[in-house]
Structure formats: structure tokens, C-alpha cells
Design goal:
globular; mainly alpha
Length: about 475
């Protein structure tokens, strides 16, 4: 199978997995948001950073090392060694979180968090059993199996969580949802992957993968802490309900962003790794993927921002309307998110995890300064600071990664700017029409449906007339796929 066919097959099954999991997850989140309160979501958001830290330390970047290592240099001992390391670390991390739980609850002035975090952190041990199975499937670009595992696991977990929420278990339904989803995902991976570890641990193999991975792990640790920094700060200085509003806005932003980024990121890392020594080809493929990503993502985010108020009211009820302005601001950071991920992937495939770590430290220092300053301007000061930091991060990431493939920040901006400008132009038209439409109807569903359909018809038509490269590429891929 050619590299292009591998990539297309990977995109197809990753698309199925992401649309399946994100779509089902979205429905589950709507049901839970209707049954639960912003405060209950806020409590889980307060402790999510600690689970995120645990998951980052769990892998120590060694999964990325396994993926980027050439096949002829790997054997079963490599996988088994990393597996046992993951399992041992998960037990240590759980024990530490268990002991720290009362102090975490005291920090937030929320005593209930002690039990919540002790139960939720069990997910770390469950995940440890699945990491190598997931890594092996990703290295083989077997996204079909991953899709067949993730979707049913989410359905079962979602059924348990929503059932408990309906019966009045409140915040514990969110705990049950996360634990059951992870348990069934791990169980199905073991049944489907047909891989089992050897009873062996090789010190030299460990040193090899740890040497590459620990820098990524520190980078990931910093990234996890600072991705959740706003949850921590809002949880400390504001009401739990405001954490809930922020978390709901961020989650809704990440549905389209996370879906598209996961599809592209999951496929591009092993894809880039296969051509890591061919800079010309690497740049060419990277450029196409970047343009396609923005072509799809920009209209989705802009439409969501324009129709945010009727969208929130229709999906989550009026109790979630305070989250609308949070959502509209965070959408700006969402547009840049996949660009950050793709640029950093270049550093990883080039084996420059040291530079990856250096960039993360620089960006985290900037975030710390921004948060300290922004606190003086309240919750909206914090939100706008995240936008400013995201813009700065774009230039920092592209400055370094661009040197490896001769693709600077200005070149990247030039290549994606036509897509963004067309998306904004169409957005202005739809915004004006929606303002007129709300004078004639009280139906939020009708406003969202009509506004979305109108936006995408105008966007596609204008892109076709202007002959955007991204649309031409999509048409070419569809035609090639239909010939099979």
C-alpha cells in the first residue's frame, strides 16, 4: 500500500472513530448538561488537571518513541518494557493522588473533591493497561481497529453515566461515565489487538525510549498543567459554576477542533515519521494538510460563534447561556490549536524532543505572566489572555519547526489566509441575515439549522469560484476514492 493510500485509509477510519466518539460524546454531554448543573461540571473540571498530569506521566513520552523508531529496530522486548513501566508508574501516581486528595479539596474549599478525585484517578490504572495496545495500532496505522473499540466503549460508558444522572446521582454520574468508558475501551483493546506483553523488562530498551520520551513527558506535563491553568485559577478565585461555564465553552470549542486535530494528528505523526528524512516531501505534505485543516475548521468555528446564543439555548437550556461569551472568545484559540499541533509534530519526527521541551517552557512562562496580569481584569481578562498567548505561541512554534522544512510563519499564514478571509466574509453575511431572522421566529433550532446551511452553501460556492487549493484537493481525493 502506498503512503498516500495508507494516509487516506487512516483518515477514513480515524474520521469514523472521531465522528463516532465525538458525535456520541456530544449527545451524551447534552443529556448530562440538561440533567446536571454547571456547578457539578465545575467540580470535575477542577480536578481534571490532576488526572491529566497522571496520564502524561504515565506514558513518559515513550509511546511516541516507539512510533518514531523504525520497525527493524523494534522487537517485542521494547513493547513489553514500556508496558511494565506504564503499569508501575500508574500505581505510584494513583497512590500519590490518593494522599494529596484532602489537600486538593482544601485548596479549592470544596470538601467533596476528596472522594471525587480518589475515585476518578482510578482511570489512570485502567489506562495503563491500554497504552501499548493503542501505540502498536497507531504505529501500524490500524485506525480501523481503534475505531471499532472506541465507539462501543463510549456508548456503554455514556449509557451508565446518563442513567445514573437521570436517577439523581449528580456529580457521581460523571465519575461513573469516565471510569466505565476507560474500562471498556481497555477491555476491547485487549480483545481486539491480540498483543500480550512478555514477562520481561530490558533496562537498555527502557533507557533508549526513556531518553527520547522524558523530554516529551516534561513538555506534556507543562502542557497539561497550563491547558488546565484556567480551570485551576477560575476554580480558586471564582465560583464552581463559573468553572462549569468555562468548561462547557471549552468542551464545545474542542468538539470540532479536537475531532479534526485528532484525525490529522493521529495520521500525520506516523505519516511524517515515514518521510522524516525527505524535507521537500515533508513540507509539501504538511502544507496540504495544514490548508485542508483550516479549510474545514474555520467555517465550523465561525458558524458556531455567530449562532452561539440559539445553539446553547437549544442544546443545553437557558441555564448555560452565561457560557456563550466564554465560548465565542475561546473559538479564536481553537482555530490555532491544530496549527500548533502540526508544527510540534515536525519537531518530534525530527527527533528534537529537547527543542520541543524548550518551546514549551518558553510558552508556559508567557502564560504565567499573562494569567497574573489578566486576573486584575476578571474572568474576561483571563479569556482574552488565552487568545493573545495562542497567537504568540503560533509564531514561537513556527519559527523553530519551520527551519527544519523551510516553512516559515509568514509562508504558513500566506497559505491559510485565503481560507480564513473567505470564512470571515461569509460569516459577516450570515450574521446580518440571522439578526433579521430572529425578528420573525422564536425557534432556536430553525435559526441554527438555516444559518448553518446558508453559511456552508455560500462558503463552498465562493471557494469554488475562487478556486481555492483546499477545495480542489478535496475534490481530487473524492474522485480518486470513488474510482476504487
Amino acid at each position: 500500500m502506498t503512503l498516500k493510500k495508507q494516509a487516506l485509509s487512516g483518515v477514513k477510519w480515524t474520521l469514523f472513530q472521531q465522528i463516532g466518539t465525538q458525535g456520541i460524546g456530544f449527545v451524551i454531554s447534552i443529556i448530562l448538561a440538561r440533567l446536571l448543573t454547571p456547578k457539578e461540571f465545575g467540580l470535575i473540571a477542577m480536578i481534571s488537571v490532576f488526572i491529566g498530569i497522571g496520564n502524561t506521566l504515565l506514558n513518559a513520552g515513550m509511546g511516541s518513541s516507539l512510533i518514531r523508531t523504525k520497525e527493524e529496530e523494534l522487537d517485542e522486548m521494547d513493547y513489553s518494557t514500556v508496558f511494565y513501566f506504564n503499569l508501575g508508574i500508574s500505581l505510584i501516581i494513583y497512590f500519590i493522588i490518593f494522599l494529596l486528595a484532602p489537600y486538593i479539596a482544601k485548596f479549592y474549599h470544596q470538601p467533596v473533591l476528596t472522594l471525587l478525585i480518589r475515585w476518578l484517578s482510578l482511570v489512570l490504572i485502567i489506562n495503563a493497561f491500554a497504552l501499548i495496545q493503542q501505540t502498536r495500532l497507531t504505529k501500524m496505522m490500524d485506525f480501523k481497529t481503534q475505531a471499532k473499540v472506541a465507539v462501543p466503549a463510549l456508548i456503554i460508558g455514556g449509557g451508565i453515566g446518563t442513567g445514573m444522572a437521570y436517577m439523581g446521582y449528580g456529580v457521581w454520574s460523571l465519575i461513573a461515565f469516565n471510569l466505565s468508558k476507560s474500562f471498556f475501551n481497555t477491555l476491547f483493546l485487549w480483545l481486539k489487538s491480540k498483543w500480550h506483553p512478555l514477562w520481561a523488562f530490558h533496562p537498555d530498551k527502557f533507557k533508549k525510549h526513556f531518553h527520547f520520551g522524558y523530554k516529551l513527558s516534561i513538555s506534556g506535563l507543562l502542557d497539561t498543567i497550563y491547558n488546565n491553568a484556567y480551570n485551576i485559577v477560575i476554580g480558586k478565585f471564582f465560583l464552581p459554576s463559573q468553572v462549569g461555564y468555562y468548561q462547557r465553552a471549552q468542551t464545545l470549542t474542542m468538539y470540532p477542533v479536537g475531532t479534526i486535530s485528532a484525525i490529522m494528528g493521529k495520521v500525520t505523526y506516523p505519516l511524517f515519521s515515514k518521510i522524516q528524512d525527505d524535507d521537500v516531501r515533508l513540507k509539501s505534505i504538511y502544507k496540504k494538510i495544514l490548508q485542508l485543516n483550516i479549510f474545514v475548521l474555520a467555517p465550523v468555528l465561525i458558524t458556531a460563534g455567530i449562532l452561539a446564543e440559539p445553539l446553547f439555548r437549544f442544546l443545553f437550556t437557558t441555564k448555560w447561556l452565561p457560557a456563550v461569551p466564554y465560548f465565542q472568545i475561546l473559538l479564536m484559540t481553537g482555530l490555532l490549536y491544530p496549527i500548533h499541533a502540526f508544527n510540534l509534530n515536525i519537531l518530534n519526527v525530527k527527533g528534537r524532543s529537547d527543542l520541543f521541551l524548550k518551546l514549551e517552557i518558553i510558552k508556559k512562562i508567557l502564560i504565567t505572566i499573562a494569567i497574573i496580569i489578566a486576573l486584575n481584569f476578571g474572568i474576561y481578562g483571563l479569556l482574552w489572555s488565552s487568545v493573545i498567548i495562542s497567537i504568540l505561541a503560533f509564531f514561537i512554534n513556527t519559527h523553530y519547526s519551520g527551519r527544519f522544512i523551510d516553512y516559515s510563519a509568514l509562508e504558513q499564514i500566506r497559505d491559510i489566509l485565503p481560507n480564513i478571509l473567505i470564512a470571515i466574509l461569509v460569516g459577516g453575511i450570515v450574521f446580518h441575515l440571522d439578526n433579521q431572522l430572529k425578528n420573525f421566529t422564536n425557534s432556536d433550532f430553525f435559526r441554527v439549522l438555516l444559518g448553518s446551511l446558508l453559511y456552508f452553501m455560500l462558503y463552498i460556492c465562493l471557494s469554488y469560484v475562487l478556486k481555492l487549493d483546499s477545495l480542489t484537493e478535496i475534490i481530487s481525493i473524492v474522485k480518486e476514492y470513488r474510482k476504487k
